[in-house]
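Researcher: Next entry: Lin0512 family protein (Paracraurococcus lichenis).
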Amino acid sequence: MNTSLRRVILEMGTGNDLHGGDYTKAALRAVQDALHHSSLAMLRALKVDPRDMVVQVTIGVQRPEKVDAERVRASLPHGQVTVSVVRGGLDVPDPDRDDPAVIASAAIAVSLPLPSGGLAP
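Model: Predicted structure:
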């Protein structure tokens, strides 16, 4: 039986750091927000080992170079995880001090090796 990698879950989340301008903290919160919208009950029903999941995380922030992608990757509990950090999100300046509120967006795509013809018999 031929299998191919198929995306089965796409979850989005947002996170912020209101004081301190910590882009990694905002990214981690965005990932946790996305994870809390999801359940992996489908994996149990299909008898898929969670280690077989291919997890692609995309983080959007205004300063991508300030995100510790390894910390974000390590925060995911299962699967073969890759993290890409791109320009996105939002910085909200504070007019009285140099302390922007950082808002991060996260997209988590989970793919599984499934039969080429899909799940139907």
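Model: Note for the record: The beta strands are 3-17, 54-61, 80-87, 90-94, 97-115.
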